[in-house]
Amino acid sequence: MTRFRARPQPLRLLRVLTALIAAGVVPGMGFAQQNAAAPADDPNGPATVSAEEMTGRPDREVFLERDVEIIRGPTTVTSDRATYRVLEDEVEASGNIRLRRNADSYTGDDMRLKIDTGEGFITHPTYHLGKNNAQGRADRVDFESREEATITDSSYSTCEGPDPDWYLKSGIMKLDTGRDVGTAYRSLVYFKGVPILGAPAISFPLSDARKSGLLPPTIGSNSKGGLDITTPYYLNIAPNRDLTLYPRLIARRGLQLGAEARYLGETYNGITRAEYLPHDRLTNSDRYLLSSLHNQTLAPGLFANWNLNFASDDNYMSDFTRNLTNTTQRLLARDINLNYAGSFWSSTARLSNYQVLQDPAAPITKPYARLPQLTFLSGQQDVNGFDWNADAELTRFWHADLVRGNRMVINPRLAYPIINQAFFVIPKVQVHATRYQLENTAPGASTTLSRTVPIFSVDSGMVFERDARFFNLPTTQTLEPRLFYVYAPYRDQSAFPLFDTAEADLSFGQLFSENRFIGNDRISNSNQLTAALVSRFLEPSGALRARFAIGQRYYFTDQRVSLTSTATESRSDLLLSAYTQLSRSLSFEGNTQYSQSLHKLRRASLFGQWQPEPGKVLNLRYRRDLPNNLEQVEVSGQWPISRRWYGVARVNYSLPDKRIAESLGGIEYKADCWVFRLVGQRIPTATQQSTSAIYFQLELTGLTRLGSNPLDALRAAVPGYQMVNQPRPNP
């Protein structure tokens, strides 16, 4: 047996090993610098070995003593003593062992490891996983491969330090870094030394990748159903398909079963959700919900989609949904569309209907169904200086109780834009032709109606600029006057049905529209001029610091086409709008609609926000809508109470009713590796009904969230809200 000894002179030892490798005596070992073709992290590359003392046969077995280090690709082993078996590519080490592989590291007392396959074990280890900063201790780690390991009698936590606030204790834990999944068997979750959750098996992510497994239970309570517990199970069927099953126990109602499937392909995507509650104990009925949303590319330029929704009864959304928007939803859409787009035209075939969820205190009329609707849109710009458009529509409107029938609309338009940097003038002419064939009309009423309205308009404006200062900052100020004239003759339309038409709310966008109605059943007579003035303050970078606008429409003839009675006012309400970013943290926005004939503020919306830094935001909003008897003041915000405590709140106060319309309040506590949230909310679900709900959630970073999720409610209620454990930008 050949014997080699190296004093504490690493360079001498490396020279000896280099000579042996060059001679082919040690085929299993080498140096990365001796093989330029092998990357430093290549697991099949040569091994680099160093120690203060080496004995043995370099072609078979080498014994290493003191300051041992073995490096091969992404694997590094250090220890007090080690034996390296060359032919097996196996290391057996003891004393102060440290194994580093990719971003993960392990320490222990004894180890055996086949470097090429990653198989082996470590006794009494501690470990640290680099992807999610998790760590723990165990009795033993068995490596099945480079990516899979089984840990016996282990702890797991993303908290740093020897005494973590929370940890997962398990009899056996399997880690699969290839799939980024961990699974713990015979497990208990401890928080502050107290067991809070136990399960035969718990799976958790080792990164942000999706994985199959039991999701944390959602626990909450509300005034309608009482205690509410959901235990979802997630199935990662494929990279582009998944399924979530969520049985939900509602104390006063019973057991609800739910499922949500998502899918994504090269030519399609969609999501389908179904819920079923057999024999609701409060209503003595079976209750269900079904919704499906799908988009499909059938061929180049040919697309299809549907949006289908069904509910068992009028109160389903308010009784079961946790989403603030869906809680007050009154119309469930059922649409199927087929679209084809050409180079300068597109066409659509549509089937549309609705399910109305009625509120007995404020019933609404069911909208007309479109069975079917065919539309054709076409247009081109700059054809010898002209822009042209031609739209057509044929719709069969159906309603069980009201007048129904067919409507055909043709609307060609021609414009000649004159535009440069300082001004623009856009004259336009169009013809709006409509024909009806009606059914279910009143006795003696005509079943065939038609209307042709020519419309002429001119849109014009100018842009002036000058250097200015805004709060002592250099800016460019613009002054942009705009005039918009429209002429359309009067046509008597009092006998025409109202299939899809309503009067549009006045806004800056609507001021520059040829028709003051939404839909095609009414075309307003017009001889009117809109005048507006806009001024902006722009930073040198182009960012907007402030915008001010004023606009009004002037009528030269009475508004004879109306849904109620003839309007004789000579001008519309006055619109004013303002926005300013006073600093990076403080902004204001306001819009008002003032009636000069009534001397009243008909509509107003004022909003101010102060957000000095992430996690700190205060909002103040005022809303007034005189036609709907709405006037509200809303205050909301998120603010640190102390270094780790955050408060969040929203109060919406109705001035006419002299009561709080909506409210939300909660606290959040942010530790280094967990977050606790407690939120209470009260929202209206019908005209004379409200629902109160309590959310409480414990988020164990990198493992799970326990309780009910208040984050959607917080984002909807508080503009500018940010999760307290969300990474903050570097100042």
From TrEMBL:
Chief location: membrane
One GO CC term, this protein: transporter complex
Metal-binding as UniProt keyword: no
Keywords of this entry: Cell outer membrane, Membrane, Signal
Annotated segments matching region Disordered: 35-54
Compositional bias per record (Low complexity), positions renumbered to this chain: 35-44
InterPro entries: LipoPS_assembly_LptD, LptD, LptD_C
Signal sequence, start to end: 1-32
GO biological process, one term: lipopolysaccharide transport
Ranges for domain LptD C-terminal: 286-645
Superkingdom in the source lineage: Bacteria
Name of a matching Pfam family: LptD
Subcellular location(s) of the protein: Cell outer membrane
Gene3D superfamilies per UniProt: Lipopolysaccharide (LPS) transport protein A like domain
The protein's role, per its UniProt record: Together with LptE, is involved in the assembly of lipopolysaccharide (LPS) at the surface of the outer membrane.
Complex formation: Component of the lipopolysaccharide transport and assembly complex. Interacts with LptE and LptA.
The family this protein is said to belong to: Belongs to the LptD family.
Protein name: LPS-assembly protein LptD
Record organism: Noviherbaspirillum humi
